[in-house]
Amino acid sequence: MRMGPPFLFAALVAYGIPPPPVHARDDLPRVAPQATAPVVAVLVWHDVLPRKDVYFDTTTAEFAAQLDAIARGGFTVVTLDALRAHLARGTPLPRKPLVLTFDDNGQGIYRNAYPLLQRHRFPATLFVHTNFVGKTTSKAHNSWPELRTMQSSGLVEVQSLTANHPPDLTKLSDADVTHEFALSKRSLEVRLRRPVYAVVYPYDVYDARVERLAAKAGYALGFTEDHGNAGASPSLLEIHRYSITVPERFAQALADVAADRP
């Protein structure tokens, strides 16, 4: 007689053997097996300013030098939509692929980073907390017209960083997390008239429950700041990114992709 899981677990406990762990993320959509190669790095910056306001800013000169290094190194910058097709369906990417992203919608992205992206014709994605669009907190944030201008260039897409950028989604109720995801998605789709399918977890704080709620709210991709090959991510709702706020991460990302090293 074949023992099913409930009987097997009971037998293990009866003999003092702990049952095997249940993997909390096993029900989340997986990365396609073909997507492990080539190595693809998703890079994330925050604000880009002539002089840093805070440690996680990048200076305009640093950012210009980084884009020059990408161009000189023969890397191919691909869109977020191309990454989605690669991770979800195994659609091939060109050699030495990179994806450029920005979090927090700082106004320096429009004023300083966007002209440099235009110069190189590099596509990029902005992750935006929608209730702060056009407002000034500790930083000035891009307005809806500025987001539309960047989007209309065909180089920039805009995706979600929740509505209010809560400090810890894991401490919110299911209803409140769902509200953050749904309100942001709806605001972006109504204002910018493009599909929203990707989200970043604020402050890089998330767990399996938050990932499931993101999927339930209609997001196909979720991004972290845990660095590594995007194709080796634990799931489509927990995708690796290299945070450029860590000084060595930019060089590491380019080296990993150039060497095709996970």
Please characterize this protein's 3D structure.
It is a single chain. The strands form 3 sheets. Strands 1, 4, 5, 6, 7 and 10 form a 6-stranded parallel sheet that branches. It is built from 8 helices and 10 strands. Helix 5 links the parallel strand 6 (124-128) and strand 7 (156-160). The protein is globular and about 45 Å long. It has one domain (32-258): TIM Barrel. Helix 6 packs across helix 7 (208-216). The protein has helices at residues 5-14, 60-72, 80-89, 107-120, 144-152, 174-192, 208-216, 249-258, and strands at residues 41-45, 48-49, 58-59, 76-77, 97-103, 124-128, 156-160, 198-200, 221-223, 242-243. 36% of the residues lie in helices and 14% in strands. By secondary structure, the chain is α/β, with parallel strands linked by helices. The longest helix is centred in the C-terminal third of the chain and has 19 residues, at 174-192.
Topology:
Elements: H1 5-14, E1 41-45, E2 48-49, E3 58-59, H2 60-72, E4 76-77, H3 80-89, E5 97-103, H4 107-120, E6 124-128, H5 144-152, E7 156-160, H6 174-192, E8 198-200, H7 208-216, E9 221-223, E10 242-243, H8 249-258
Parallel strand pairs: 1-5, 1-10, 2-3, 4-5, 5-6, 6-7, 8-9
Helix pairs in contact: 2-4, 6-7
Low-confidence stretches: 1-15, 17-23
Counting DSSP H or I runs of 4 or more residues, the number of helices is 8
Distance between the termini: 44 Å
Strand content: 5-15%
Overall geometry:
globular
Mean pLDDT: 92
Structural class: alpha/beta
Name the helicity range. 25-40%
Number of strands: 10
Tally of individual domains: 1
**String of helices and strands:** HEEEHEHEHEHEHEHEEH
Q: Which fold does the CATH topology refer to?
A: TIM Barrel
Query: Largest sheet, described in full?
Result: 6 strands, parallel
At the first level of CATH, what is the class?
A: Alpha Beta
Rg from Cα: 20 Å
The second-level CATH architecture is Alpha-Beta Barrel
CATH superfamily: Glycoside hydrolase/deacetylase
